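Example record

The entry below shows one chain as it appears in the dataset: sequence first, then structure tokens.
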Amino acid sequence: MFIKIIEDEKLCNVTDMSYMFNKCSSLISLNLSSFNTNNVTDMSYMFKLCSSLISLDLSSFNTNNVEYLFCFLSHLKKEKIIFNDKILKYF
């Protein structure tokens, strides 16, 4: 599966990213280093059941305003995920 990540000014206003990639079981690699997550408050189930995902870059994620991370990385092989320090505190 191929997903093209776009940079768009409108994305900076997003507050809910829950279920965004949920059940993308064919997704193998995803680089979200350009995502603006400054205003996001809910990332619950964002990558749940992405069972084929082996490379995930979340290094630029700003989780300062995130209140909900339920099952954020459920069913993933976390050794291939690039985190930032803020996300690491949840695991």
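Notes for this example: The chain has one helix and three strands. The longest helix spans residues 85-88.
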